[in-house]
Amino acid sequence: MTIRKSYRFLTGPDDAGFCQKVSDALAEGYVLYGDPVMASCNGEIVCGQAVILPGIIPGVRQDEAHGEDD
Q1: 38 Cα distance to chain centroid
Q2: Residue 30: band (very low, low, confident or very high) from pLDDT cuts 50, 70, 90
Q3: DSSP structure class, residue 53
Q4: Sheet of strand 31-41: strand arrangement
Q5: Residue 11, Cα to own-chain centre: how many angstroms?
Q6: Strands (E), 1-70
Q7: CA gyration radius, the chain
Q8: pLDDT tens string 33-61
Q9: Distance between CA atoms of residues 44 and 39, nearest Å
């Protein structure tokens, strides 16, 4: 049995592969947590996005996890 991590920080180049990595995590039941980030490392753009399993942070609803204000 595989134990899923409750928190993951996904990183990768700004390309379709990174988008697929985030999409796969969402399909596995994770939700976005916080804003995405982009940084330059040795002249290359690197993207990052945190994801969590729903219910991991007490008092934080799924819609709050990814920064929706309404």
Answers
A1: 13
A2: very high
A3: -
A4: 7-13, 44-52, 31-41
A5: 9
A6: 7-13, 31-41, 44-52
A7: 13
A8: 999 999 998 999 999 999 999 987 776 66
A9: 8
Residue tagged 């985030």 (tokens): 22
- What is d(CA 41, CA 54) in angstroms, rounded to the nearest whole number? 31
> Token pair of 46, please?
């690197």
Cα–Cα distance between 10 and 39 in angstroms, integer? 13
Residue 32 corresponds to which tokens in the numbers above?
Answer: 């976005």
Taking the domains of the chain in order of start, what are their residue ranges?
A: 7-55
Q: Residue 68 has what DSSP assignment? A: -
C-alpha distances in angstroms, 58 versus 1, 12, 52?
26, 29, 12
Alpha helices for 1-70 (secondary structure H): 16-27, 62-65
- pLDDT of 4: 86
